[in-house]
Design a protein that fits this description.
Layout (H helix, E strand, L loop, with lengths): L11 H20 L1 H16 L10 H15 L8 H6 L1
Helix pairs in contact: 1-2, 1-3
Length: 88
């Protein structure tokens, strides 16, 4: 018998992963933008691997939010940055 879950709660596990990782990912962004980008690529690679964790593929979307917020805060969020943010 398969348990039935409330469909509106599907994001809670993903959000919990993100809230635990967020301080570390933000610190990495502040220290090294290259390492931050590589971590995003690593999350996608882990997601795409045969034993990958499904939720990990969504974490780079949250990482784009960090980049967008930083660019917005510095007044540099222009249409020039939107394509790279959409791809990453």
């Amino acid at each position: 018998l398969t348990p039935t879950y409330n469909g509106s709660f599907w994001t809670l596990g993903l959000e919990a992963h993100w809230y635990v990782l967020f301080p570390f990912v933000l610190a990495l962004y502040l220290r090294s933008r290259v390492a931050f980008a590589l971590l995003g690529v690593a999350f996608y690679a882990w997601y795409a691997s045969p034993g990958g964790v499904r939720d990990v593929g969504v974490l780079p979307c949250f990482m784009r939010g960090i980049v967008a917020a930083d660019l917005w805060r510095r007044g540099k969020l222009t249409s020039r940055y939107l394509p790279p943010l959409a791809v990453f």
